[in-house]
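Memo to structure team: turn this sequence into structure tokens by end of day. - J.P.
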Amino acid sequence: MQQYVHYILILACLIATFFLYNRQLAAIPLLLLSFILFYVAYKKVTNLKNKK
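Reply from structure team:
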């Protein structure tokens, strides 16, 4: 279930980037997308470290 939320959130950021690109505001959703991807990667790394 949580994986679907991640996919929907990433898709929403990509769609927002597409629409805001013409207004030269594409950096805003891309910055949010980078924070989201960093958070997902951080959770996976800490989860792997806890399993050892």
